[in-house]
Amino acid sequence: MTHTPFNGYPLNQPPFIMTRMNTPDQNQPTPGSPLWWAVQAQRRTKPNGRGRPSLPFDKIIATALELVEEIGYQSFNLRALADRLGSGTATLYRHFDSKDEILVYVADKFLSRLLAEDRYEGLSWSESCTLAATKFYQLLKFHPNVAPIILGQVPVGPNALAIREHLLSLLLDAGFEPNMAASAYTTIAHYVLGFASQLSSDVQSTPGASTELLVLFNKLDPELYPATIRSAKHLAPISIDDEFHFGLKLIIHGLECILNKTLKLN
């Protein structure tokens, strides 16, 4: 398994890869990449010209998110979005160069659901990190049509940056050194993405998989696999949700130990 930081591209081959479409200059940065986001502050809606009036940017993205949730990113296209908006594709091209650009904004819009300020008010760094990671995992779990877009791009849009800033600030304020705060953030984020990538696994969703595992374990040679047989009844019924919460507790506990040691040395 190839690991890259959360401010890089996700684990392994992502299910959704940004490509340049309908753009004559192939040297332009890939939609969703850090270079692409860097120039979006200068984005301007193209002149109207003839045809239907322009649409509000936020309305386009909100509607696109609704559509992706309904039909999935693979079936999503500009014609379907234009029809939902009661407009034409030419109107969309006044704002965007491609479908991919819209999906980048859809992903960042989706991440805004993690930003409710009152949700984190009064919580410690460990409680906030646990809550944010759990909420992120649940969002990806219960919105499977959006999850592949999140897993397949660099999360550096405005909402992704706001999430990163909030959690890094908590870690730094708690006493973590900048290098440890960065490592803690990327580890937690990568942990969530890793588990989210398994949610659509056929093995995870197959009814009776736990029973089949238990049968297999109990048929193993006790001389070769004594530990597996001894632990079999505890291994088989572990769900991916249980694994996620258990592992997250271990990560947070490990970070608490590191922080306590750091504070004592200082």
Written account of the structure:
The protein is mainly alpha-helical and 266 residues long. The protein has two domains: 78 residues, Homeodomain-like (Arc Repressor Mutant, subunit A, Orthogonal Bundle), CATH 1.10.10; 148 residues, Tetracycline Repressor, domain 2, CATH 1.10.357. Helix content is 58%, strand content 0%. Helix 2 packs across helix 3, helix 6 runs antiparallel to helix 13 and helix 8 packs across helix 9. The relative contact order is 0.12.
Poorly predicted runs:
1-24
N-to-C terminal Cα separation, in Å?
37 Å
Q: What's the CATH topology label of the largest domain?
A: Tetracycline Repressor, domain 2
Order of helices and strands: HHHHHHHHHHHHH
The Cα radius of gyration reads: 22 Å
Helix content: 55-70%
Mean pLDDT score, rounded? Answer: 84
SSE-based structural type: mainly alpha
User: Briefly, what CATH class of the largest domain?
Assistant: Mainly Alpha
Tally of DSSP helical segments: 13
Give the name of the CATH architecture of the largest domain: Orthogonal Bundle
Largest sheet composition: none
Strand content: under 5%
Considering the protein shown, what is the CATH homologous superfamily of the largest domain? Tetracycline Repressor, domain 2
Number of strands: 0
Return the domain count: 2
User: What's the overall geometry?
Assistant: globular
